Amino acid sequence: MMPSPGLDTRRGRTYCPLNRFAKPVLTPGAATGPRDPIRPDPHQDSRYEETVEERTPRRPRIADVAREAGVSKTAVSFAFNSPDRLAPETASRIRDVADSLGYRPNPVARMLTQRQTHTLGVLTPQALSVIFSNPFFGAFSEGVALAAEQEGYALHFISPLQGSLARAMGRATVDGVVAVGLAAAHPEVEQIRAAGLPLVMVDSSALPDQPGVEIDDEGGARAAAEHLLQLGHRDILIVGVEPPTPGALTEPEGVTGRRMRGYVQALAAKGLELPSGAVVVAPASIEGGIAAMRRAWEDGLRPTGVLAMSDAMAIGVLRAARELGLRVPEDVSVVGFDDIDISQHTNPPLTTVHQPIRRKGESAVRLLLSVVQRRDLPPEQLRLETRLIVRGSTGPAPHRRQEVDRVPH
Fold first, then answer.
1. pTM for this structure?
2. Domain 217-356+388-405 bears CATH identifier 3.40.50.2300
3. Peptide bond before 208: cis, by omega within 30 degrees of 0?
């Protein structure tokens, strides 16, 4: 029989069927010719005799530490989890041996032993992609992280999982929770309280048996509205924060409810009422502020002053105003709320209500840790002050209504 084309029979090779990687392999002992200089012989090269287990270094175990230190495995566990149950020099020697071996306690086992995770949860009502688009939350989280890391705690941000905050909370393994912007009657707040998990409420109505942190939202909003009224503005638009759940009612004691109350109080003191349609809500982001201002303009509103419930929204209003051909503050004045870092660098710099954002985050964690660490302190309710910061985005109202009306649609 003639040899099949393509097969090299001159070197005495015998081919077996394809293996599972679809590559031809040589039958052991079948080669009679010289070795292929390109392909090493697995029977002669010791590198091919190593198994995967031999190539992967074994992770040091508690038994290894106990053997090297000459103690029991229980003593090793005590050295990491309950060092006060050993003599200080013994605990230190065991940890030194563990370091030399590269041993690290299993985090899950350690959590079960100590019944602590050394992790704090930050519960938010909206998706993290939405929350972190607002620079306010970044500054707040900076304060939270600073206080947590100083005490050796990690953070777990908890947001709705597949649309369900309850599902996300059910999977969270934390020692306590900072709940941001959730009403006291919110189902997840009730779930946390029923589970006996330490809880601190931030920017919510106070619970008598739980610590909380808030700011003077009402007073800050009132000062912002009074500033515009003192400048002669009467046609005022309020840009509010839409509820986390579409169609939900505004919580009277939530941030939006308190700030709205402050705006209305300032108008009422001047004998003014808020006209129908003068409140537009949107997400608390720059894009939300742009959309709100455009919608108000398309609806025929011609405000000379805008009160935005967040700086991010106010920055969006500034941009929308420029796109509409409005001059700030000659045609329209804008006031924000929060005093985030970028507010002083906008064009023009933003008049806003200052709140101590980072200190709010730090305070929330310190209150939470006082409960987690069982310091037996009575629940503390902190209320941080706000103040008006006047910059270049506000000025006197236009002398003639036509000065704004003439701007092309």
1. 0.71
2. yes
3. no
